[in-house]
Specification:
Chain lengths: 120, 533
C-alpha cells in the first residue's frame, strides 16, 4: 500500500518561488528592509524536506513498526521537564535531560529490535 | 501489552490514535478556554468591576486567546489532518508515526505548562496571546507565570510543527499508486498547503519565544527603540499565518461536505489548487498589517498584499457555490455547519478588507471591531468548519452516527449565539470601546449585555454538541462504511478503519475515486439501448 509516487515536490517548489518573489517585492519596495529576509525562512525550511523525500523514497514493503512506543513519551517528558527547568532551576533541567537521554536510548533499542525483526 | 491498557493508548503510534489524542486534548483546552471567555463576558455584562480585578481580567483574556489559538484550533486542525490525510491518500500509516506522537506529547505538556501559571504567585501570563515587548519583559510582567507561558507556547507550537511535518511527508512519500498530486482530495490539498505555512512560520515563533525567555532572564535582546519592532516582526510572521492554519483545513472539510451533500463532483478543482498555493503564499506576506500603527513597516506593501487575499478567497467561494449550483442538495447536519461557515466567514473576511486599509485600521485598531472581526473568522467561521468536519467524519472515525435532530438543533443554537455575541462588537468597536479592558463607559452597556447573553447561548450550543457526542457513542447507531454516499478514499474502508487502514483499494483515476466507481457501476448497469433499424 505504501511506496507511492515520488513526485510531489512541484507544489513545494511553486510555493517557495512565490514566497521568494513576494520577499523580493518587499525588499525592493522598502529599499532593503531586513524583515524581507523572513521570506527566505519558508523555502529554507521546506527544501530539505523535499530533497529528503526525493532522495529517500518510502520503502515499498510492509512496515514493521512498534504499535506502542513508550520511549517517545518518556523523551517528550524529558524535553518538557528540561524546558520548564529554564525557569524552575538547573536541577530540573538536569532531571529533564536525564529523562530525555534515557528515553532516547530506549528508543534506539526499540528501533534496533524492530530492524532485526525485519531482517535488515 | 493489552490493546486497551492506558499506557498502550497513551503511547500508541497509529496515526488515528494519535489524532484522537490530539482531538481530545484540544477539546479539553477548548472547554477550559471557553470557561475563561464566559467569565469575561459575565464581567462585561455590566459596566464597572463585578467579579474580577483588572489583573485577573488580563490573565483571563491572555489565557483565553492563547488557549484557543495555540492549544485548540491549531492542533485541532492538524489533528483532523493527521487522522484523515493518510486515509485520503491511501496510505497504511502516517510517514513518521513516532514523530507525530512526540509532537502530540510536546503540545499537551506545553499546554499544561501554560495553564500551570495559574498556580503561581503572580498568576498566569497576562500580556495577551501576542506577549508584546516591553509589556512581556521581566519588569513589565515579573513572575514565573509568564515564564511558564513562554515555555509552554514554545513547546506546544513545536509539537504542532512536528505533527505538520508528518502530514507533509505523508503526502509527499506515501500516496497510493495512482494517487498523483492532482488526484489528491480537496481536504488533503488544504492540509498540504497548511503544512507549508506551518513549516515556514512556526519555527520563527519558537525562536521568538526562546529570545523572549532570554530577554526576561538575561536582558539585552529586544532593547532600544527597535527591540519591540523586531519582536513584532518575529511574532506576526507566525501570528498571521497561524490564522490561516486555523482556516484552510476547515475550508477543505467544508469543500468535501459541500461536494458530498450536493451529490456532485467538486467544481473548479484545478482553480482551487492554484488559488490555494497563491492564497497560502500571500497569507505569509501580510503580517505587517498588524503593525500599521507602528509606522515602522511599508504600509502600502502590506495593504496591497492583504487586499489581494480577496482574489484567491473569491475563487474558493466561487468553487464552493459552483459546486452547489445544479446539485441535489441534502441539508444534513454537516451541510448546515458547512453553510454556516460559508456565510459567517464571509462577514469575517469582508471586515478583514476594512482593516487591510491603513486609514480605516488606524480608527479601529485596538478596539472591539478587531475582536468582532477575528471572532467571525475563527469562531463563526473556523469552528463551524471544524464542526462540519466533525459531524461529517464522526461516523467514519467511530462507526456510529450522530443524532441528526440534536445536531441540527445545536447548529441553530450555535449560529444564534455566535451572531448575538460577536455582531454587537462591531458597533462597540466602531464607537471606540477598547479591547482588553474589564470596565467601560456606561453608554456601551446595552450592546455588551447583548453580547454576554449571546455567550451564554453559545455555551448551551456547545453543551448540546457534547451531549450528542456522548449519546451517539453510548447508544450506537451503526454507520457502515459510507453513510453519506461520499467521494473520497477514506469512505472505502471500514468504520472505524482497521489498524493498517485498508485491505484493498479501488482504482484511483481522480480525486473522487468512489464517485468514479459509482458512475462506472451505473454505466455498467444501464441496459443497452436498441438501435432502431
Amino acid at each position: 500500500m505504501n511506496g507511492g509516487p515520488r513526485g510531489g515536490g512541484g507544489p513545494l517548489v511553486a510555493w517557495s518561488t512565490i514566497m521568494v518573489a513576494l520577499g523580493l517585492m518587499l525588499a525592493i519596495w522598502s529599499a532593503g528592509d531586513a524583515s524581507a529576509l523572513l521570506f527566505l525562512v519558508g523555502p529554507a525550511a521546506l527544501v530539505p524536506l523535499a530533497v529528503f523525500s526525493r532522495l529517500r523514497p518510502a520503502p515499498g514493503g510492509p512496515r514493521l513498526l512498534a504499535r506502542v512506543s513508550v520511549p517517545v513519551v518518556v523523551t517528550a517528558l524529558g524535553v518538557a521537564l528540561a524546558a520548564v527547568g529554564l525557569t524552575g532551576g538547573l536541577w530540573l533541567v538536569l532531571i529533564g535531560a536525564e529523562v530525555g537521554v534515557f528515553g532516547l536510548v530506549w528508543l534506539a533499542i526499540e528501533i534496533v529490535s524492530e530492524r532485526r525483526r525485519l531482517g535488515r | 501489552m493489552a490493546g486497551g491498557a492506558p499506557v498502550s493508548r497513551l503511547a500508541a503510534t497509529d496515526h488515528k490514535k494519535t489524532a484522537a489524542k490530539v482531538g481530545i486534548a484540544s477539546l479539553c483546552f477548548f472547554l477550559l478556554s471557553g470557561l475563561l471567555a464566559l467569565t469575561m463576558r459575565a464581567e462585561l455584562a455590566q459596566p464597572g468591576l463585578q467579579f474580577v480585578s483588572d489583573h485577573t481580567y488580563d490573565e483571563l483574556f491572555t489565557m483565553h486567546g492563547s488557549g484557543m489559538i495555540y492549544l485548540f484550533l491549531t492542533p485541532a486542525a492538524l489533528g483532523l489532518g493527521l487522522y484523515l490525510v493518510p486515509l485520503q491518500v491511501g496510505a497504511s500509516q502516517v510517514a513518521a508515526p513516532r514523530l507525530a506522537l512526540f509532537g502530540f506529547w510536546l503540545y499537551l505538556l506545553g499546554g499544561l505548562t501554560m495553564y500551570s501559571g495559574f498556580l503561581t504567585d503572580n498568576g498566569a501570563g497576562d500580556d495577551s496571546w501576542t506577549a508584546t515587548i516591553p509589556l512581556s519583559n521581566s519588569s513589565g510582567t515579573p513572575g514565573v507565570g509568564m515564564d511558564l507561558w513562554v515555555i509552554g507556547v514554545a513547546l506546544a507550537v513545536f509539537g504542532s510543527l512536528l505533527i505538520a511535518i508528518t502530514i507533509l511527508l505523508t503526502v509527499l512519500r506515501l500516496r497510493a499508486p495512482g494517487m498523483t498530486m492532482l488526484r489528491l482530495p480537496v481536504f488533503s490539498w488544504t492540509m498540504l498547503v497548511t503544512t507549508f505555512m506551518v513549516v515556514a512560520s512556526f519555527p520563527v515563533l519558537v525562536v521568538a519565544m526562546a529570545l523572549l525567555l532570554a530577554e526576561r532572564h538575561l536582558g539585552g535582546v529586544f532593547t532600544g527603540s527597535t527591540g519591540s519592532i523586531v519582536y513584532q516582526h518575529l511574532f506576526w510572521f507566525y501570528g498571521h499565518p497561524v490564522v490561516y492554519v486555523m482556516f484552510f483545513p476547515f475550508v477543505g472539510a467544508v469543500a468535501e461536505t459541500v461536494a458530498t451533500f450536493s451529490r456532485k463532483r467538486f467544481f473548479g478543482y484545478r482553480a482551487l489548487v492554484v488559488s490555494l498555493l497563491f492564497f497560502t503564499a500571500l497569507s505569509m506576506a501580510v503580517w505587517g498589517h498588524h503593525m500599521f500603527i507602528t509606522g515602522a513597516v511599508k504600509n502600502q506593501y502590506y495593504s496591497l498584499t492583504s487586499t489581494l487575499l480577496a482574489v484567491p478567497a473569491g475563487i474558493e467561494y466561487l468553487d464552493l457555490i459552483g459546486t452547489m449550483i445544479g446539485g441535489a442538495l441534502v441539508f444534513r447536519a454537516p451541510m448546515l455547519f458547512a453553510l454556516g461557515f460559508i456565510v459567517q466567514f464571509l462577514i469575517g473576511g469582508l471586515t478583514g478588507i476594512i482593516v487591510a486599509s491603513p486609514p480605516l485600521d488606524y480608527h479601529v485598531n485596538g478596539t472591539y471591531f478587531i475582536v468582532a472581526h477575528f471572532h467571525y473568522t475563527l469562531f463563526a467561521g473556523s469552528l463551524f468548519g471544524l464542526l462540519a468536519g466533525v459531524h461529517y467524519w464522526f461516523p467514519k472515525a467511530t462507526g456510529a452516527m450522530l443524532r441528526e435532530r440534536l445536531a441540527k438543533a445545536s447548529f441553530w443554537v450555535l449560529a444564534a449565539g455566535a451572531n448575538l455575541t460577536f455582531f454587537p462588537m462591531f458597533f462597540l468597536g466602531y464607537d471606540g470601546m477598547p479591547r482588553r479592558v474589564a470596565d467601560y463607559e456606561p453608554r456601551l452597556g446595552d450592546l455588551n449585555l447583548l453580547s454576554s447573553i449571546g455567550a451564554g447561548v453559545i455555551a448551551i450550543g456547545v453543551l448540546m454538541v457534547l451531549a450528542n457526542l456522548a449519546v451517539s457513542l453510548r447508544r450506537r447507531v451503526p454507520a457502515g462504511n459510507d453513510p453519506w454516499g461520499a467521494q473520497t478514499l477514506e469512505w472505502w474502508t471500514s468504520s472505524p478503519p482497521p489498524a493498517d487502514n485498508f485491505t484493498t483499494l479501488p482504482r484511483i483515476d481522480s480525486y473522487a475515486p468512489l464517485l468514479d466507481l459509482r458512475e462506472r457501476e451505473e454505466e455498467a448497469a444501464e441496459p443497452a439501448v436498441e438501435v432502431p433499424a
